[in-house]
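This is your field. Please look over both lines of this record.
***
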Amino acid sequence: MSNTDFDTENIILVTEANLRDEQKQAMAKAMEEYKQLCLKSFNVNRSGKVIQKEALPMPRQITFEANPGKLQEMVDNAINRALIIQSSVLSNIVFNDVASVDIWERNKELIRKRTDIGEHFTREVI
């Protein structure tokens, strides 16, 4: 076994009984906060039936004070995921806009020549 390998059988698991009182309190607070976050995934309808409106959130360990760049990384990842999911829509929008500008530019003179209002039309639109 090299220095970087470790034996999974040699790991000592921590139980709640091993924790100090302040650690137990911190864990209880974190669990309560997560529980409240999970409860936001549910609604009650008018008949009193509880309905789950979205999936339960995954627990995360994020400390912005210790890692201020983490927030930017999370925002960047969310934007990247959104762009990947919507990439076909965005590419169609850009293509259509570029194509319409290109068609207008190529046919501007033809439009000027074929309209009765000529200069007035082109000054107003351009």
